[in-house]
Amino acid sequence: MIVPITWGLGFTLAKIGMEQFSALLIMSIRFGIAGLVLVWFTKPPWGHMREIFVVALIGSTIQYGLTYNGLKGIDASTAAILVQLEGPILALLGTILLKEKLGLTRALGMGLAFLGVFIIAGEPRLEGHIDSVILLVAGSAVWAVAQIMISRLKGLSGITILAWVAIMATPQMLIASLIIEDGQWQAITSASLVDWSIIFYLAFIMTVVGYSIWYHLLSSVDVSKVSPFLMLLPITSIVAGMILLDEKLTLSMIIGGVMIMTGVASTLINWRWPKKQINLP
After folding, report:
1. CA–CA distance, 71 with 175 (Å, rounded to integer)
2. Low-confidence ranges of the chain (pLDDT < 70)
3. Deepest of 99, 136, 191, 215, by most Cβ within 10 A of its Cβ?
4. Dihedral angle sign, alpha carbons of residues 68, 74, 75, 81
């Protein structure tokens, strides 16, 4: 329960943090701190540095650039539901790229999930913010591509991949931030204690603690038994959004959210998830 609670709360806190820091800047600080903490517990994977660099570029720098810029434009509750498309998209890519068997149940589940997205996207309050929805869905697709790449990194533990992806993604995100964002120095120097507390949570609680627990579970419990618990993540984000951001649930959100979560649940049935996936909310 610690994993979906810490990750779901972190997703909402990140939206609050982006009122002070730009998307790529806050992520570079987050993973810079987490990488410096985790790197001491693993050896450098010298033979896989090129692959990890590419995974960091696609699965962190590009994915976070898309996902968190999308999060800026809509409420955290809606965004948390939309990113659950990662599961169905991963299942679809596994079928296409890895020749996995999809099956009727998963196919119907993916169709239901995508239909739920269309219902949520039709929300009146999202009018004019469809670009944010597209960014979030695109981020989910990029995340799924990265998971396929990670599944091919044989012989590396999840902690090793996480630590060195963080180390390599940090300068990538920072450079990208300097190119496409502005006001970095002002944001850092004017940040309040609350702003830095959010950074602390994202780096230590959400990333270091959350992922350490997650990878311990992956190594000691069947993945099929723990993966469904991640479906609690959007519930945590929704509750946190209502409490911290005064967000409101609408009927369309509830209907679309139930459809997406039901579709996601169907993709988990007998699905053999890669043990070295990095599910970064």
Report:
1. 21
2. 87, 90-91, 94, 98-102, 121-128, 218-228, 264, 267-281
3. 136
4. negative
pTM reported for the whole predicted model: 0.80
pLDDT digits (tens, 9 = 90+) for 146-199: 877 877 777 788 788 889 999 999 999 999 999 999 999 999 999 999 999 999
Q: Are 8 and 237 in contact (CB under 8 A)?
A: yes
